[in-house]
Write a structure and sequence with these properties.
By secondary structure, this protein is an alpha/beta fold. It has two domains: 19-251 and 358-372, Alkaline Phosphatase, subunit A, CATH 3.40.720; 257-355, 2-Layer Sandwich (Gyrase A, domain 2). It is 29% helix and 22% strand. The protein has 14 helices and 19 strands. It has helices at residues 22-26, 59-63, 70-73, 88-97, 101-104, 137-140, 163-169, 180-192, 204-212, 216-235, 287-298, 307-312, 322-327, 361-364; strands at residues 49-54, 76-81, 110-113, 116-119, 124-125, 129-130, 152-156, 173-177, 197-202, 241-245, 251-252, 257-258, 268-274, 277-282, 302-306, 331-335, 340-341, 354-355, 365-372. α4 (88-97) runs parallel beside α7 (163-169), α8 (180-192) runs parallel beside α10 and α9 packs antiparallel against α10. The longest helix has 20 residues, at 216-235. It is globular, with a radius of gyration of 20 Å. The model is unreliable at 29-36 (pLDDT under 50).
Amino acid sequence: MGAQPFPDPVIPAYGRGCVSDLMPQLLSVGATRPRSSQLPIELSGGHPRVLLVLDGLGWDQLVERWEIAPALKQFSGNKITTVAPSTTAVALTSITTGLTPGEHGIVGYRMLLDGMVINCLRWGTDERGDARKSCPPDLAQPYEPFLGQSVAMVSKAEFRTTGFSTAHLRGARLSGYRTTALLVHETARLIRSGEPFVYAYYDGIDKVSHEYGLGSEFDAEVAFSDRLVGDLLDALPTGTELIVTADHGQVDCTQGAIPIDSQLEPMIDRLSGEGRFRWLHARSGANDELLHAASDMHGSVAWVVSIEQMIDEAWFGSHVSDEARRRLGDVALLPFEPIAFEDPADGGPFELIGRHGSLTSAEMYVPLLAATAS
C-alpha cells in the first residue's frame, strides 16, 4: 500500500457560511451590510433572539455525541466554518464584529503588535505585563462590535474589564454571572425586559477540553452544556429564537507539543500564534529558505504554508489590511496530525491536551443551530 495522501485544509467559508456572517443576519442590518443567505437556519423576524456561543464545541465533536446532547439534537441547522486561525480571540472578534480576521486585525492568540508578541486573551506579555496602555485594545481592533448597535450581553463577570473584552465587546451592556445558573437567569430576564437581542457566552467546554482532552470529562461537560441549552430554551419567553454556535472545535493532542526542529532556528527571528497555528517570523532575507526547510522538517505532520499563499487563498478573508499583515508571520506550521508545536515563551499552568488553531475538520466546523421557545 502506498502512503496515505495528506488531507486538505478546511478554508473558512467567508460570506458562504462562516461565523463572521452571523451578526449581519441576526441583527437585521440593512443594505449597507447585506444578510448572508448561506446560513443553515431559518429566522422568522419580529421576535427577540439570543445567540449563545459555546466556546470549544466543534461540529464533529457534537455529532459524535448526539446521544448525550438530546436538547441540541432537536434544534434545526447544520455546520458552518469558523475563521483562521481557529482560535478563540480571532473567532470571537469575527463573531461580534461580523468581519474577517484580515479586516478586524485580531489574527491570533499570540500576535505581533507594536514590536512585541502579546497574549490577546490576557492582553499582555509575561515580560511587560498588562499591555492595555502601550497597545490600546480599541486601537488594535478599531471596529465597533455588533455593527455599532447597543447590545445586551451575558458573560462571566470577571471578563468585564479585560483588554480582550475592550477589543471585541466594547459598547455591549454586560450582565456578569458568577455561576452558570445565572447565565440562564440573566439571559431570560433581559429578554423579558424587552431586549430584542442578547449575546451570551459560556466557556466550559473549551476549559475542560484544554485540561482533560476529549475523554469522559469532555463528555460530561458536553452533556452539562446540552442541559444548559435546554434550561435556557425553557426559561425564555414564548417565541424567542435561541441560536447556538461555537468559535472552534477541538483536537485531542495526547502526544503533546513537539519542538520546532533546531535546524530552523538560525532562520527564525521569533514565534507567535498558537501550538496548532505556529507562526515563524523569518530573519531578514530568510523567508524562502525558511519555507523550504520547514517543509522538509515538518511537512509530514503539518501544512507548512507561506503568508503569501494564505493571503492569495483568502484564509483571512478577501482583504487583509496592512496593519493585520504586519501582525502575521512569514511561514506557518499547521498540524493535521494530533500534535502542537512548542513555543518556549508560551507557557501556562498545565500542559494543554485539547487544542485548536489549525484547519482540520475537527477544528474548523462548528454548529449553527436554532430553536424557538414555546
